[in-house]
Amino acid sequence: MHVQAAKTVSHILHNCRQSENSYPRSYPPKTLLPFLTPPKTPTLSFRLASAPIKTREPNTNKTKSKVSIQVRLMRFVVTKPSAGAGVAGKARLGALYLGGGGAAPPIETPALVVPTRRGLPSFISRDLLDRLPYPDSLLLHLCPIHFIVCPSTRTIKNIGGVHEMVGLQDHFFIASPGDSVESLPEHGGTNKIGAAFETPSGRRLINPKDYMDIISSTRPNLWASLADEVPAWVTEKRNRLSIDRTLKWLDDCLSLDQEKGASTLGAVVGGPNIEHRKKCATEVSMRNVSGFYLGGFGLGESIEERSALLNAVTNILPEEKIRFVSRLGLPEEVLQGVAAGIDLFDSTYIYHLTLGGFALVFPLDILGEAPEALLRNSSNDYTKINLHATIYRKDTSPIVDKCSCYTCQDHTRAYLNHLLNVHEMLAQILLEIHNTHHYLGFFRSIRRALKQEKFELFRERFMESRRVHLTEAVPYS
Amino acid sequence: MALQFEVVGRFNRARASKLTLPHYVVQTPMFMPVGTQGTIKGLTNSQLEDIGCQIILGNTYHLALRPGAELIDELGGLHKFMNWKRGLLTDSGGFQMVSLLHLADITEEGVTFQSPVDGKPMLLTPEESIQIQNKIGADIIMALDDVVRTTITGPRIEEAMYRTLRWMDRCIAAHKRPDAQNLFGIVQGGLDPVLRDICVRGLVERNLPGYAIGGLAGGEDKDSFWRVVAQCTAALPEDKPRYVMGVGYPLDIVVCSALGADMYDCVYPTRTARFGTALVPEGVLKLKHNAMASDERPIVSTCSCMVCKNYTRAYIHSLVTRDAMGSQLLSYHNLSYMMRLSKDLHMSIVEGRFPEYVRGFLRTQFPKGDVPQWVCNAMEVAGIDISSCCAPVPV
């Protein structure tokens, strides 16, 4: 009987992984954002606010039906205008209605726009998406750049648009160029012809006509015009150029738009320069658009200088139209955006957390809990836990006690720890479900605080609870 | 014995049954997806239930490594750990002897593996395997057998067969939970009918709750494969379930069911999904092909799974090899397809139209009538007339 000599451990590891854990090469991507830090010690799990969260009936076998353009149009209404005064003076409540009547309830803003890859979340398929909070989870992001390679615009058109193509006929898609994971704006490649993006299939240049081809074939409910988004460190000359281009492309897109701006979010850029931002905002406001996409944020400006820039823009934009911003992902950044009068946020925070094996656990009932309760156990990271950590090996509790998401109802921290250790795809699916659910809950808390006119207090308390573990780590002097 | 096996329909050697296990009542013929490490790759429990999965497999070798048998036991068994409410079956770790042979050393005592996690030697004896499986707590557990590839010839096969019987006794002795877990024996013996016969008789003597036919699905020629299955199903008792391990392709499952087998497992449907291949009645569909980029049809027009009801081939094409979602959706469809196949086999036997079903299946897979010779041979033994599916032989 012939038995081969055992090889080295790395060879064994390689072989095992090859045979047991094969999935597409593009997954997972190679880098994580620097803000993800592993925790040192375990954290407590917090209870959610007691308000029950509605979910829909699962709808796994929907028959296809082509919906006309009229029904897709969305209408935005400010339901509680900004107070005008105070630190958070510009925060407001709003509602998005799907035109044409029908049973769908409005989506309240400020709201999270759930990121997608080619129209579907990275890991949550449509049958599991149904179980997320309703109607909050109906709002999805669409990145037209994902469709540069395939499917072709003709195929998408034949299928009937993105809603049909991904089987989410009742959902709302908000499109903006670029996303923070797969289609990064590359200002160095952008020229007068079009905007450049770094994609998995290389650097791509897209001009307004191609962009509108994708928009008109996918037919999202709202879409931002093509913009030249530049990072904060470019020269003033380059910055001015980006404004000129963005305005020109806005006009190009509008001229190609069959709906004449009814679903258009005019892109406002201007980098880190307040005067430029104001100028661009004024110009875009004069166009016949239904709302605004604040571009160029989250590309290198510091969190401190961002407030002034956001406010400079929202001061000028008409109150009654919707405002959408990309790449303000962290809870602190969201609060900053809400305070400046932003209504919609798209971020890949959840995606990066999920890939890193993190689960959000921060308390959502900020106003309900007594301040002392929030500052209870000082040496913990209140935001998230890393389920790779060995302390979770035998932890049979759910990620967050009393969380009503599928993951917390059906699975334990121990199981997730195991899945992460053996590199199983189910880990990412379950984590993305929980993290999305939790983050949507965060936005609900924000809206609740706004309704109770306690947003400033909410923001203060939230920031304090997150800074505690940092300040208390400093020894007495 | 912790199961009840009731035949509810027959056609010649084929049978449909109701198999009652501690955690679930299953219908056979039945395909069992493989969830090696305590999960089916890319699918949640709720999706597996929607698809109609009845039993899923876990693997002793992998689970003993991570998260470890002690931990699973402490947390209440694999059902509780995974929160899977239906049936579970664990393999003994024997197959890893074959698939990871360069790591293994087989002696009478057991199998020594070099652990891929930390390089330490791991000895898997029959006692150890059963102990681990007792801790994991599956409804059906497999005896540790000495598995040899069917492509090998010589005295090794005979040695392995006798050792399998000796290890069977050690497994029976070590099994602490016969009231909650069913220990199946595995028939070995390579492709040699004499050895297979000795092994079958030896296992039947031990009066086990169920029997598996092992050592196949490893690259042997199909004509030998079906003959071994036919021989074993003829000799195994009528009133106990028969499990052909590592099968497989839908065609193989139809043939083996016609010959009298009940249960099957294979990584094929889920693994091929991760490489962009979908199972269709005609065979397979490679979603990666450029032709799929503009194909606006669903993967299978007659399939009622969530994927076929909502997605086009063109969209799936844009996902496969790029996004994890592509793997998920294809795995969902492929498993739905296998569950549908199982259900169709069961119902066609129960409703007395099994031969028609087999003919329909073969006609769809071989529209030109080029049914492989081994299938024709097998169907002759199974007593099913498929002459209408085969093209006339040129004179």
TrEMBL record, chain A:
Q: Which SUPFAM superfamilies match?
A: tRNA-guanine transglycosylase
Alphabetical list of InterPro entries matching this protein: QTRTD1 (IPR028592), Queuine_tRNA-ribosyltrfase (IPR050852), TGT-like_sf (IPR036511), tRNA_ribo_trans-like (IPR002616)
Q: Which cofactor does it need?
A: Zn(2+)
In terms of domain of life, where is this protein from? Eukaryota
Cofactor binding: number and manner: Binds 1 zinc ion per subunit.
Any single Pfam family the record assigns to this protein: TGT
- Which terms are listed as keywords in the entry? Cytoplasm, Metal-binding, tRNA processing, Zinc
Q: How does it assemble?
A: Heterodimer of a catalytic subunit and an accessory subunit.
Entry protein name: Queuine tRNA-ribosyltransferase accessory subunit 2
Q: Which organism is it from?
A: Rhynchospora pubera
Taxonomic classification? Eukaryota, Viridiplantae, Streptophyta, Embryophyta, Tracheophyta
Automatic annotation (TrEMBL), chain B:
tRNA-guanine(15) transglycosylase-like domain location is 13-365
- Which residues make up the binding site for Zn(2+)? 303, 305, 308, 333
Which HAMAP family is this protein grouped with? Q_tRNA_Tgt
Name the UniProt record assigns to this protein: Queuine tRNA-ribosyltransferase catalytic subunit 1
Catalysed reactions, semicolon-separated: guanosine(34) in tRNA + queuine = queuosine(34) in tRNA + guanine
What is this protein's function?
Answer: Catalytic subunit of the queuine tRNA-ribosyltransferase (TGT) that catalyzes the base-exchange of a guanine (G) residue with queuine (Q) at position 34 (anticodon wobble position) in tRNAs with GU(N) anticodons (tRNA-Asp, -Asn, -His and -Tyr), resulting in the hypermodified nucleoside queuosine (7-(((4,5-cis-dihydroxy-2-cyclopenten-1-yl)amino)methyl)-7-deazaguanosine). Catalysis occurs through a double-displacement mechanism. The nucleophile active site attacks the C1' of nucleotide 34 to detach the guanine base from the RNA, forming a covalent enzyme-RNA intermediate.
Gene3D superfamilies xrefs: Queuine tRNA-ribosyltransferase-like (3.20.20.105)
Q: Which InterPro entries match?
A: TGT, TGT-like_sf, tRNA_ribo_trans-like
EC assignment: the record states 2.4.2.64
Q: Which cofactor does it need?
A: Zn(2+)
Q: Name one GO molecular function term.
A: tRNA-guanosine(34) queuine transglycosylase activity
According to its UniProt entry, one GO biological process term is:
tRNA modification
Q: Name the species this protein comes from.
A: Rhynchospora pubera
| Major localization class | cytoplasm
Can you tell me which family this protein belongs to? Belongs to the queuine tRNA-ribosyltransferase family.
PANTHER family per the record? QUEUINE TRNA-RIBOSYLTRANSFERASE CATALYTIC SUBUNIT 1
Q: What GO cellular component term, any one, is given?
A: cytosol
Query: Which residues of the sequence carry a binding annotation for substrate?
Result: 91-95, 145, 188, 215
